[in-house]
Design goal:
The structure holds 2 protein chains of 2 kinds. By secondary structure, chain A is an all-alpha fold. In chain A, 75% of the residues lie in helices and 1% in strands. Chain A has 13 helices and 2 strands. Chain B is an all-alpha fold. Classes of the chains: A mainly alpha, B mainly alpha.
Protein backbone atom coordinates (compact mmCIF):
# COMPACT_ATOMS: atom_id res chain seq x y z
CA UNK A 1 0.00 0.00 0.00
CA UNK A 2 2.76 2.42 1.03
CA UNK A 3 4.55 1.57 -2.18
CA UNK A 4 1.53 2.65 -4.23
CA UNK A 5 1.23 5.94 -2.34
CA UNK A 6 4.92 6.73 -2.87
CA UNK A 7 4.66 5.77 -6.54
CA UNK A 8 1.69 8.04 -7.10
CA UNK A 9 3.58 10.82 -5.34
CA UNK A 10 6.35 10.45 -7.93
CA UNK A 11 3.79 10.29 -10.70
CA UNK A 12 1.64 13.21 -9.56
CA UNK A 13 3.32 16.01 -11.52
CA UNK A 14 3.25 13.98 -14.74
CA UNK A 15 -0.39 13.02 -14.20
CA UNK A 16 -1.40 16.67 -13.76
CA UNK A 17 0.60 17.85 -16.80
CA UNK A 18 -0.68 15.05 -19.04
CA UNK A 19 -4.25 15.53 -17.82
CA UNK A 20 -4.30 19.29 -18.37
CA UNK A 21 -2.25 19.55 -21.57
CA UNK A 22 -2.79 16.23 -23.30
CA UNK A 23 -5.76 14.14 -22.22
CA UNK A 24 -8.28 16.88 -21.48
CA UNK A 25 -7.50 18.83 -24.70
CA UNK A 26 -8.23 15.70 -26.73
CA UNK A 27 -11.71 15.49 -25.20
CA UNK A 28 -12.16 19.24 -25.38
CA UNK A 29 -11.21 19.25 -29.08
CA UNK A 30 -14.00 16.81 -29.88
CA UNK A 31 -16.50 18.82 -27.82
CA UNK A 32 -15.42 22.12 -29.40
CA UNK A 33 -16.03 20.72 -32.89
CA UNK A 34 -19.75 20.78 -32.14
CA UNK A 35 -19.79 24.16 -30.39
CA UNK A 36 -19.55 27.83 -31.16
CA UNK A 37 -17.24 29.69 -28.73
CA UNK A 38 -17.40 33.45 -28.20
CA UNK A 39 -15.71 33.93 -24.78
CA UNK A 40 -18.60 36.08 -23.54
CA UNK A 41 -21.48 33.69 -22.99
CA UNK A 42 -21.11 29.97 -22.46
CA UNK A 43 -20.51 27.98 -25.66
CA UNK A 44 -23.53 27.01 -27.80
CA UNK A 45 -24.09 23.53 -29.16
CA UNK A 46 -24.41 23.81 -32.91
CA UNK A 47 -24.52 20.20 -34.05
CA UNK A 48 -22.77 19.61 -37.39
CA UNK A 49 -22.81 23.30 -38.38
CA UNK A 50 -19.01 23.68 -38.08
CA UNK A 51 -18.46 20.75 -40.40
CA UNK A 52 -21.05 22.10 -42.85
CA UNK A 53 -19.29 25.47 -42.86
CA UNK A 54 -16.00 23.72 -43.63
CA UNK A 55 -17.41 21.65 -46.46
CA UNK A 56 -18.94 24.79 -47.98
CA UNK A 57 -15.57 26.60 -47.90
CA UNK A 58 -13.85 26.26 -51.30
CA UNK A 59 -10.48 26.50 -49.49
CA UNK A 60 -11.23 23.28 -47.62
CA UNK A 61 -10.87 21.24 -50.80
CA UNK A 62 -7.92 23.36 -51.94
CA UNK A 63 -6.11 22.86 -48.61
CA UNK A 64 -6.56 19.08 -48.67
CA UNK A 65 -5.54 18.87 -52.32
CA UNK A 66 -2.43 20.96 -51.59
CA UNK A 67 -1.58 18.88 -48.53
CA UNK A 68 -2.00 15.63 -50.46
CA UNK A 69 0.11 16.98 -53.32
CA UNK A 70 2.74 18.12 -50.86
CA UNK A 71 2.77 14.74 -49.11
CA UNK A 72 3.19 12.85 -52.39
CA UNK A 73 6.01 15.16 -53.51
CA UNK A 74 7.63 14.91 -50.10
CA UNK A 75 7.51 11.13 -50.33
CA UNK A 76 8.95 10.99 -53.82
CA UNK A 77 11.79 13.41 -53.03
CA UNK A 78 12.07 13.50 -49.26
CA UNK A 79 11.85 9.76 -48.95
CA UNK A 80 14.01 8.60 -51.84
CA UNK A 81 16.85 11.05 -51.37
CA UNK A 82 17.80 10.08 -47.79
CA UNK A 83 17.65 6.38 -48.61
CA UNK A 84 19.90 6.69 -51.65
CA UNK A 85 22.20 8.97 -49.66
CA UNK A 86 22.43 6.41 -46.87
CA UNK A 87 23.19 3.58 -49.31
CA UNK A 88 26.01 5.65 -50.84
CA UNK A 89 27.40 6.77 -47.48
CA UNK A 90 27.40 3.19 -46.26
CA UNK A 91 29.84 2.32 -49.07
CA UNK A 92 32.30 5.07 -48.26
CA UNK A 93 35.17 4.46 -45.87
CA UNK A 94 36.63 7.96 -45.95
CA UNK A 95 35.42 11.27 -44.48
CA UNK A 96 32.61 9.45 -42.65
CA UNK A 97 32.48 12.00 -39.83
CA UNK A 98 32.42 14.88 -42.30
CA UNK A 99 29.45 13.45 -44.20
CA UNK A 100 27.45 12.79 -41.05
CA UNK A 101 28.19 16.23 -39.67
CA UNK A 102 27.13 17.97 -42.88
CA UNK A 103 23.96 16.04 -43.53
CA UNK A 104 22.74 16.59 -39.97
CA UNK A 105 23.76 20.25 -39.69
CA UNK A 106 20.53 21.62 -41.26
CA UNK A 107 18.46 19.57 -38.80
CA UNK A 108 19.88 21.73 -36.01
CA UNK A 109 18.86 25.03 -37.63
CA UNK A 110 15.58 26.52 -36.39
CA UNK A 111 12.94 25.96 -39.13
CA UNK A 112 12.20 29.68 -39.29
CA UNK A 113 15.88 30.39 -40.02
CA UNK A 114 15.93 27.76 -42.76
CA UNK A 115 12.70 29.08 -44.26
CA UNK A 116 13.94 32.69 -44.35
CA UNK A 117 17.31 31.65 -45.78
CA UNK A 118 15.73 29.65 -48.57
CA UNK A 119 13.30 32.46 -49.30
CA UNK A 120 16.38 34.56 -50.00
CA UNK A 121 17.97 31.80 -52.10
CA UNK A 122 14.73 31.48 -54.12
CA UNK A 123 14.54 35.20 -54.99
CA UNK A 124 14.01 35.08 -58.79
CA UNK A 125 16.28 38.14 -59.26
CA UNK A 126 19.59 38.09 -57.35
CA UNK A 127 18.78 34.86 -55.47
CA UNK A 128 21.43 32.14 -55.20
CA UNK A 129 19.61 29.52 -57.27
CA UNK A 130 18.80 31.67 -60.27
CA UNK A 131 22.29 33.20 -60.14
CA UNK A 132 23.84 29.73 -60.34
CA UNK A 133 21.46 28.69 -63.12
CA UNK A 134 22.22 31.89 -65.07
CA UNK A 135 25.93 31.32 -64.54
CA UNK A 136 25.59 27.84 -66.04
CA UNK A 137 23.49 29.19 -68.90
CA UNK A 138 20.40 27.26 -67.79
CA UNK A 139 16.83 28.55 -67.69
CA UNK A 140 15.88 30.17 -64.38
CA UNK A 141 12.77 29.50 -62.28
CA UNK A 142 10.13 31.55 -60.53
CA UNK A 143 10.30 29.21 -57.50
CA UNK A 144 7.96 30.46 -54.75
CA UNK A 145 6.52 33.20 -56.96
CA UNK A 146 4.69 30.85 -59.32
CA UNK A 147 1.75 28.71 -58.26
CA UNK A 148 3.06 25.84 -60.40
CA UNK A 149 6.45 25.59 -58.65
CA UNK A 150 5.66 26.97 -55.17
CA UNK A 151 4.86 23.60 -53.60
CA UNK A 152 7.85 21.74 -55.00
CA UNK A 153 10.05 24.62 -53.78
CA UNK A 154 8.72 24.06 -50.27
CA UNK A 155 9.37 20.32 -50.56
CA UNK A 156 13.01 21.01 -51.48
CA UNK A 157 13.45 23.18 -48.37
CA UNK A 158 11.94 20.57 -46.11
CA UNK A 159 13.96 17.76 -47.63
CA UNK A 160 17.18 19.72 -47.19
CA UNK A 161 16.29 20.61 -43.62
CA UNK A 162 15.16 17.19 -42.44
CA UNK A 163 16.93 14.54 -44.50
CA UNK A 164 19.76 14.31 -41.95
CA UNK A 165 17.67 12.37 -39.44
CA UNK A 166 16.30 9.90 -41.97
CA UNK A 167 19.70 9.41 -43.62
CA UNK A 168 21.41 8.56 -40.34
CA UNK A 169 18.62 6.23 -39.24
CA UNK A 170 18.83 4.36 -42.57
CA UNK A 171 22.59 4.28 -42.26
CA UNK A 172 22.33 2.63 -38.85
CA UNK A 173 19.88 0.08 -40.29
CA UNK A 174 22.15 -0.64 -43.25
CA UNK A 175 25.04 -1.39 -40.92
CA UNK A 176 23.10 -4.20 -39.31
CA UNK A 177 22.87 -6.09 -42.62
CA UNK A 178 25.16 -9.14 -42.37
CA UNK A 179 28.03 -8.91 -44.86
CA UNK A 180 27.70 -12.54 -45.94
CA UNK A 181 24.37 -11.74 -47.57
CA UNK A 182 26.23 -9.54 -50.03
CA UNK A 183 28.92 -12.18 -50.46
CA UNK A 184 26.25 -14.75 -51.26
CA UNK A 185 24.73 -12.34 -53.78
CA UNK A 186 28.18 -11.84 -55.29
CA UNK A 187 28.59 -15.60 -55.71
CA UNK A 188 25.23 -15.69 -57.47
CA UNK A 189 26.59 -13.05 -59.84
CA UNK A 190 24.14 -10.32 -58.78
CA UNK A 191 24.87 -6.78 -60.01
CA UNK A 192 24.72 -3.61 -57.93
CA UNK A 193 21.02 -2.86 -58.48
CA UNK A 194 20.06 -6.49 -57.92
CA UNK A 195 21.94 -6.48 -54.61
CA UNK A 196 20.10 -3.32 -53.50
CA UNK A 197 16.73 -4.75 -54.57
CA UNK A 198 17.18 -8.25 -53.16
CA UNK A 199 19.34 -7.64 -50.09
CA UNK A 200 19.43 -4.00 -48.99
CA UNK A 201 15.75 -3.14 -49.28
CA UNK A 202 14.28 -6.36 -47.82
CA UNK A 203 16.74 -6.20 -44.90
CA UNK A 204 15.73 -2.63 -44.00
CA UNK A 205 12.05 -2.74 -44.84
CA UNK A 206 10.78 -2.21 -41.28
CA UNK A 207 12.83 0.94 -40.85
CA UNK A 208 11.79 2.13 -44.30
CA UNK A 209 8.10 1.59 -43.55
CA UNK A 210 8.37 3.21 -40.12
CA UNK A 211 10.03 6.34 -41.45
CA UNK A 212 7.62 6.44 -44.37
CA UNK A 213 4.61 6.56 -42.05
CA UNK A 214 6.24 9.02 -39.66
CA UNK A 215 7.03 11.22 -42.63
CA UNK A 216 3.44 11.13 -43.88
CA UNK A 217 2.23 12.17 -40.42
CA UNK A 218 4.81 14.98 -40.22
CA UNK A 219 4.34 16.32 -43.75
CA UNK A 220 0.57 16.41 -43.45
CA UNK A 221 1.03 18.82 -40.53
CA UNK A 222 3.27 21.17 -42.50
CA UNK A 223 2.89 24.72 -41.22
CA UNK A 224 6.05 26.73 -40.51
CA UNK A 225 7.50 26.75 -44.03
CA UNK A 226 4.36 27.86 -45.91
CA UNK A 227 3.47 30.28 -43.10
CA UNK A 228 6.89 31.97 -43.22
CA UNK A 229 7.75 31.61 -46.92
CA UNK A 230 4.50 32.06 -48.85
CA UNK A 231 1.65 32.76 -46.44
CA UNK A 232 -0.34 30.26 -48.50
CA UNK A 233 0.20 32.00 -51.86
CA UNK A 234 0.58 32.53 -54.73
CA UNK A 235 -3.11 32.00 -55.59
CA UNK A 236 -3.60 29.82 -52.47
CA UNK A 237 -1.30 27.20 -54.01
CA UNK A 238 0.43 26.54 -50.67
CA UNK A 239 -2.52 26.74 -48.29
CA UNK A 240 -2.16 23.55 -46.27
CA UNK A 241 -4.68 22.04 -43.87
CA UNK A 242 -2.82 23.46 -40.90
CA UNK A 243 -2.57 26.90 -42.45
CA UNK A 244 -6.34 26.84 -42.99
CA UNK A 245 -6.81 25.69 -39.38
CA UNK A 246 -4.65 28.58 -38.19
CA UNK A 247 -6.70 31.03 -40.26
CA UNK A 248 -9.99 29.79 -38.84
CA UNK A 249 -8.73 29.89 -35.26
CA UNK A 250 -6.59 33.00 -35.18
CA UNK A 251 -7.78 35.23 -38.05
CA UNK A 252 -11.52 34.56 -37.81
CA UNK A 253 -11.54 33.52 -34.10
CA UNK A 254 -13.77 30.64 -35.13
CA UNK A 255 -12.44 28.01 -32.72
CA UNK A 256 -15.36 25.67 -33.31
CA UNK A 257 -14.73 25.31 -37.04
CA UNK A 258 -10.97 25.12 -36.45
CA UNK A 259 -11.58 22.24 -34.03
CA UNK A 260 -13.80 20.49 -36.54
CA UNK A 261 -10.94 20.70 -39.03
CA UNK A 262 -8.47 19.30 -36.47
CA UNK A 263 -10.85 16.43 -35.82
CA UNK A 264 -10.87 15.57 -39.53
CA UNK A 265 -7.08 15.90 -39.68
CA UNK A 266 -6.80 13.72 -36.60
CA UNK A 267 -8.97 11.03 -38.19
CA UNK A 268 -6.85 11.00 -41.36
CA UNK A 269 -3.54 10.98 -39.47
CA UNK A 270 -4.93 8.40 -37.05
CA UNK A 271 -4.98 5.84 -39.85
CA UNK A 272 -1.28 6.38 -40.49
CA UNK A 273 -0.40 6.45 -36.77
CA UNK A 274 -2.26 3.20 -36.31
CA UNK A 275 -0.31 1.56 -39.13
CA UNK A 276 2.91 2.92 -37.64
CA UNK A 277 2.13 1.38 -34.28
CA UNK A 278 1.30 -1.98 -35.85
CA UNK A 279 4.58 -2.01 -37.73
CA UNK A 280 6.74 -1.00 -34.77
CA UNK A 281 5.10 -3.72 -32.66
CA UNK A 282 5.95 -6.24 -35.33
CA UNK A 283 9.51 -4.93 -35.64
CA UNK A 284 10.01 -5.17 -31.87
CA UNK A 285 8.84 -8.77 -31.77
CA UNK B 1 31.65 -5.24 -42.68
CA UNK B 2 31.24 -5.94 -46.39
CA UNK B 3 28.94 -3.85 -48.47
CA UNK B 4 27.75 -3.49 -52.04
CA UNK B 5 31.01 -2.62 -53.77
CA UNK B 6 34.55 -3.93 -53.51
CA UNK B 7 37.14 -1.76 -51.79
CA UNK B 8 39.79 0.13 -53.74
CA UNK B 9 38.06 0.05 -57.11
CA UNK B 10 38.11 3.02 -59.46
CA UNK B 11 34.34 3.36 -59.00
CA UNK B 12 34.90 3.85 -55.26
CA UNK B 13 37.11 6.89 -55.74
CA UNK B 14 34.74 8.42 -58.29
CA UNK B 15 31.77 8.00 -55.93
CA UNK B 16 33.76 9.35 -52.98
CA UNK B 17 34.84 12.47 -54.87
CA UNK B 18 31.36 13.08 -56.25
CA UNK B 19 29.82 12.69 -52.79
CA UNK B 20 32.36 15.05 -51.24
CA UNK B 21 31.62 17.72 -53.83
CA UNK B 22 27.84 17.24 -53.66
CA UNK B 23 27.68 17.29 -49.86
CA UNK B 24 29.88 20.35 -49.58
CA UNK B 25 27.84 22.15 -52.25
CA UNK B 26 24.49 21.17 -50.80
CA UNK B 27 25.04 21.59 -47.08
CA UNK B 28 28.08 23.78 -46.47
CA UNK B 29 28.14 26.32 -49.31
CA UNK B 30 24.64 27.73 -48.68
CA UNK B 31 25.64 28.42 -45.07
CA UNK B 32 28.94 30.02 -46.11
CA UNK B 33 26.98 32.07 -48.66
CA UNK B 34 24.78 33.48 -45.89
CA UNK B 35 27.71 34.05 -43.56
CA UNK B 36 29.47 36.10 -46.26
CA UNK B 37 26.26 37.69 -47.53
CA UNK B 38 25.73 39.39 -44.20
CA UNK B 39 28.99 41.34 -44.73
CA UNK B 40 27.81 42.77 -48.07
CA UNK B 41 25.88 46.04 -48.21
CA UNK B 42 22.24 45.70 -49.47
CA UNK B 43 23.10 47.27 -52.86
CA UNK B 44 25.77 44.63 -53.46
CA UNK B 45 23.35 41.88 -52.44
CA UNK B 46 20.91 43.06 -55.13
CA UNK B 47 23.61 42.93 -57.79
CA UNK B 48 23.58 40.48 -60.72
CA UNK B 49 25.67 38.45 -61.15
CA UNK B 50 26.39 38.28 -57.43
CA UNK B 51 29.83 38.87 -55.97
CA UNK B 52 31.44 35.85 -54.34
CA UNK B 53 33.46 37.64 -51.68
CA UNK B 54 32.11 40.99 -50.45
CA UNK B 55 33.55 43.89 -52.50
CA UNK B 56 32.69 46.28 -49.72
CA UNK B 57 33.09 44.61 -46.33
CA UNK B 58 30.68 45.82 -43.71
CA UNK B 59 32.37 44.38 -40.64
CA UNK B 60 29.75 45.87 -38.33
CA UNK B 61 26.86 43.98 -39.91
CA UNK B 62 26.53 41.47 -37.09
CA UNK B 63 26.71 44.14 -34.39
CA UNK B 64 24.26 46.32 -36.32
CA UNK B 65 21.85 43.41 -36.70
CA UNK B 66 22.10 42.70 -32.97
CA UNK B 67 21.19 46.31 -32.15
CA UNK B 68 18.66 46.87 -34.96
CA UNK B 69 16.53 43.88 -33.98
CA UNK B 70 17.38 44.09 -30.28
CA UNK B 71 18.45 40.45 -30.50
CA UNK B 72 19.79 40.37 -26.92
CA UNK B 73 16.26 40.42 -25.58
CA UNK B 74 15.08 37.63 -27.88
CA UNK B 75 18.12 35.50 -27.13
CA UNK B 76 17.36 35.85 -23.45
CA UNK B 77 13.68 34.99 -24.02
CA UNK B 78 14.65 31.91 -26.04
CA UNK B 79 17.15 30.77 -23.40
CA UNK B 80 14.51 31.13 -20.70
CA UNK B 81 12.02 29.14 -22.79
CA UNK B 82 14.48 26.39 -23.74
CA UNK B 83 16.23 25.94 -20.38
CA UNK B 84 12.92 26.17 -18.52
CA UNK B 85 11.32 23.65 -20.86
CA UNK B 86 14.19 21.28 -20.15
CA UNK B 87 14.13 21.77 -16.36
CA UNK B 88 10.35 21.44 -16.05
CA UNK B 89 10.27 18.41 -18.31
CA UNK B 90 13.01 16.67 -16.33
CA UNK B 91 11.35 17.45 -13.00
CA UNK B 92 8.09 15.97 -14.30
CA UNK B 93 9.15 12.94 -16.34
CA UNK B 94 12.15 11.56 -14.42
CA UNK B 95 10.19 10.77 -11.23
CA UNK B 96 7.29 9.53 -13.35
CA UNK B 97 9.44 7.16 -15.39
CA UNK B 98 11.13 5.94 -12.19
CA UNK B 99 7.77 5.27 -10.56
CA UNK B 100 6.47 3.42 -13.62
CA UNK B 101 9.64 1.39 -13.97
CA UNK B 102 10.70 0.56 -10.41
CA UNK B 103 7.82 1.29 -8.03
CA UNK B 104 5.25 -0.38 -10.30
CA UNK B 105 2.10 1.10 -8.78
CA UNK B 106 -1.38 -0.26 -9.35
CA UNK B 107 -2.67 0.86 -12.81
CA UNK B 108 0.89 1.78 -13.79
CA UNK B 109 0.52 0.04 -17.12
CA UNK B 110 -2.76 1.81 -17.81
CA UNK B 111 -1.07 5.17 -17.19
CA UNK B 112 1.86 4.31 -19.45
CA UNK B 113 -0.63 3.21 -22.10
CA UNK B 114 -2.60 6.46 -21.84
CA UNK B 115 0.63 8.42 -22.13
CA UNK B 116 1.79 6.46 -25.16
CA UNK B 117 -1.62 6.90 -26.75
CA UNK B 118 -0.92 10.65 -26.94
CA UNK B 119 1.97 9.86 -29.28
CA UNK B 120 -0.53 8.71 -31.87
CA UNK B 121 -2.03 12.15 -31.66
CA UNK B 122 -0.20 14.75 -33.74
CA UNK B 123 0.59 17.74 -31.52
CA UNK B 124 -1.11 20.12 -33.93
CA UNK B 125 -4.40 18.23 -33.69
CA UNK B 126 -4.81 19.67 -30.18
CA UNK B 127 -3.62 23.15 -31.17
CA UNK B 128 -6.94 24.86 -30.50
CA UNK B 129 -7.93 23.13 -27.24
CA UNK B 130 -4.44 23.51 -25.73
CA UNK B 131 -4.45 27.17 -26.76
CA UNK B 132 -7.83 27.69 -25.12
CA UNK B 133 -6.65 25.86 -21.98
CA UNK B 134 -3.61 28.16 -21.83
CA UNK B 135 -5.94 31.14 -22.17
CA UNK B 136 -8.15 29.83 -19.35
CA UNK B 137 -5.11 29.38 -17.10
CA UNK B 138 -3.88 32.87 -18.02
CA UNK B 139 -0.59 31.48 -19.35
CA UNK B 140 -0.33 33.60 -22.51
CA UNK B 141 2.81 35.76 -22.61
CA UNK B 142 4.22 33.51 -19.90
CA UNK B 143 7.05 31.04 -20.57
CA UNK B 144 5.18 28.50 -18.44
CA UNK B 145 2.74 28.38 -21.36
CA UNK B 146 5.53 26.61 -23.27
CA UNK B 147 7.13 24.72 -20.39
CA UNK B 148 4.08 22.88 -19.08
CA UNK B 149 2.66 21.51 -22.36
CA UNK B 150 6.21 20.53 -23.42
CA UNK B 151 6.61 18.53 -20.20
CA UNK B 152 3.85 16.15 -21.29
CA UNK B 153 6.34 14.29 -23.49
CA UNK B 154 5.30 10.65 -23.63
CA UNK B 155 8.18 9.56 -25.85
CA UNK B 156 10.77 10.77 -23.34
CA UNK B 157 8.91 9.13 -20.44
CA UNK B 158 9.01 5.91 -22.43
CA UNK B 159 12.72 6.21 -23.30
CA UNK B 160 13.62 6.84 -19.65
CA UNK B 161 11.40 4.03 -18.39
CA UNK B 162 12.91 1.61 -20.88
CA UNK B 163 16.39 2.53 -19.64
CA UNK B 164 15.42 2.32 -15.96
CA UNK B 165 13.90 -1.13 -16.62
CA UNK B 166 17.39 -2.45 -17.35
CA UNK B 167 18.83 -1.36 -14.01
CA UNK B 168 19.08 -4.55 -11.89
CA UNK B 169 16.68 -4.77 -8.92
CA UNK B 170 19.53 -6.03 -6.68
CA UNK B 171 21.24 -2.65 -6.94
CA UNK B 172 18.16 -0.84 -5.65
CA UNK B 173 17.61 -3.55 -3.03
CA UNK B 174 21.16 -3.04 -1.75
CA UNK B 175 20.56 0.70 -1.45
CA UNK B 176 17.33 0.04 0.44
CA UNK B 177 19.11 -2.26 2.91
CA UNK B 178 21.68 0.51 3.43
CA UNK B 179 18.77 2.68 4.55
CA UNK B 180 18.24 4.75 1.41
CA UNK B 181 14.66 5.92 0.87
CA UNK B 182 12.96 5.97 -2.52
CA UNK B 183 14.10 9.51 -3.30
CA UNK B 184 17.76 8.97 -2.44
CA UNK B 185 17.74 5.72 -4.40
CA UNK B 186 16.60 7.73 -7.41
CA UNK B 187 19.13 10.55 -7.03
CA UNK B 188 22.14 8.53 -5.78
CA UNK B 189 21.80 5.25 -7.67
CA UNK B 190 19.46 5.50 -10.64
CA UNK B 191 20.31 8.93 -12.04
CA UNK B 192 24.13 8.50 -12.07
CA UNK B 193 23.80 5.21 -14.00
CA UNK B 194 21.33 6.79 -16.39
CA UNK B 195 23.55 9.63 -17.54
CA UNK B 196 23.66 8.54 -21.21
CA UNK B 197 19.88 8.48 -21.63
CA UNK B 198 19.47 11.66 -19.56
CA UNK B 199 21.93 13.41 -21.88
CA UNK B 200 20.02 12.31 -24.98
CA UNK B 201 16.63 13.27 -23.60
CA UNK B 202 17.97 16.61 -22.30
CA UNK B 203 19.60 17.60 -25.59
CA UNK B 204 16.52 16.75 -27.59
CA UNK B 205 14.31 18.68 -25.14
CA UNK B 206 16.48 21.81 -25.46
CA UNK B 207 16.79 21.54 -29.25
CA UNK B 208 13.05 21.01 -29.69
CA UNK B 209 12.28 24.09 -27.57
CA UNK B 210 14.84 26.22 -29.44
CA UNK B 211 13.52 25.16 -32.86
CA UNK B 212 9.82 25.42 -32.05
CA UNK B 213 7.83 28.03 -33.91
CA UNK B 214 4.09 27.45 -33.81
CA UNK B 215 3.72 27.28 -30.00
CA UNK B 216 5.76 30.40 -29.19
CA UNK B 217 3.87 32.14 -32.02
CA UNK B 218 0.60 31.43 -30.22
CA UNK B 219 1.77 31.78 -26.62
CA UNK B 220 3.61 35.14 -27.00
CA UNK B 221 1.41 37.74 -28.69
CA UNK B 222 3.43 40.39 -26.81
CA UNK B 223 6.45 41.21 -29.07
CA UNK B 224 8.71 41.86 -26.06
CA UNK B 225 8.22 38.27 -24.83
CA UNK B 226 8.79 36.49 -28.15
CA UNK B 227 11.47 33.92 -28.94
CA UNK B 228 14.07 34.38 -31.69
CA UNK B 229 12.13 32.37 -34.29
CA UNK B 230 8.94 34.35 -33.81
CA UNK B 231 10.76 37.69 -33.66
CA UNK B 232 12.86 37.01 -36.78
CA UNK B 233 9.76 36.03 -38.70
CA UNK B 234 8.11 39.28 -37.58
CA UNK B 235 11.15 41.42 -38.46
CA UNK B 236 11.85 39.75 -41.82
CA UNK B 237 9.61 41.89 -44.09
CA UNK B 238 11.02 45.28 -43.02
CA UNK B 239 14.63 44.57 -42.12
CA UNK B 240 17.51 45.37 -44.52
CA UNK B 241 18.50 42.04 -46.04
CA UNK B 242 22.12 42.08 -44.82
CA UNK B 243 21.00 42.65 -41.23
CA UNK B 244 18.37 39.92 -41.50
CA UNK B 245 21.00 37.46 -42.77
CA UNK B 246 23.29 38.35 -39.87
CA UNK B 247 20.37 37.82 -37.48
CA UNK B 248 19.64 34.39 -38.97
CA UNK B 249 23.26 33.35 -38.55
CA UNK B 250 23.34 34.55 -34.95
CA UNK B 251 20.09 32.74 -34.11
CA UNK B 252 21.53 29.45 -35.41
CA UNK B 253 24.87 29.67 -33.64
CA UNK B 254 23.81 28.22 -30.26
CA UNK B 255 22.31 25.14 -31.93
CA UNK B 256 25.32 24.64 -34.20
CA UNK B 257 27.62 24.97 -31.18
CA UNK B 258 25.49 22.50 -29.22
CA UNK B 259 25.67 20.08 -32.14
CA UNK B 260 29.44 20.32 -32.45
CA UNK B 261 29.84 19.88 -28.69
CA UNK B 262 27.43 16.95 -28.30
CA UNK B 263 27.58 15.45 -31.77
CA UNK B 264 28.13 11.94 -30.49
CA UNK B 265 25.26 12.07 -28.03
CA UNK B 266 22.94 13.55 -30.62
CA UNK B 267 23.73 11.07 -33.38
CA UNK B 268 23.67 8.14 -30.95
CA UNK B 269 20.35 9.30 -29.52
CA UNK B 270 18.92 9.61 -32.99
CA UNK B 271 19.55 6.00 -33.88
CA UNK B 272 19.32 4.30 -30.48
CA UNK B 273 16.35 6.18 -29.07
CA UNK B 274 14.17 5.30 -32.01
CA UNK B 275 13.02 7.82 -34.53
CA UNK B 276 12.92 11.33 -33.28
CA UNK B 277 14.32 14.50 -34.71
Amino acid sequence: MRRHVTAYGFLSAALVVFAVFSWWPIVRGVVLSFQQVNFVTSPDWVGWENFERLFADPLFVVAWRNTAYFTVLALLIGFGVPFVTAVVLNELRHAKGYFRLLVYLPVMLPPVVTALLWKWFYDPGPGLFNSVLRGLGLPTGQWLDSSSTSMISLVLVITWANMGSATLIYLAALQTIPGDLYEAADLDGAGLLKKIWHVTIPQTKFVILMLLLLQVVATMQIFTEPFVMTGGGPEESTVTVLLLLYRYAFYYNDFGTASALSLILFAVLGVFSFLYLKITRKADA
Amino acid sequence: MRTLTKPGSKLYWVVLTATLILFTAAFLLPLVWVLLGAFKPPAELAQQPPTILPQTWEPDAYVNAWNYMNLGRFFLNTFVVAIGAWAVQMAVIVPAAYALSKLRPIFGNVIMGLMLATLMLPSTAVLVPVYLTLTDLDLLNNPAGIWLPAAANALNVYLLKRFFDQIPEELLEAARIDGANTWTTLTRIVLPISRPILAVVSIFAVVAAWKDFIWPLLVFPDPAKQTLSVALQRFAPDTPINLLLAGLVLASLPMVALFLAFQRHILAGLTAGGVKG
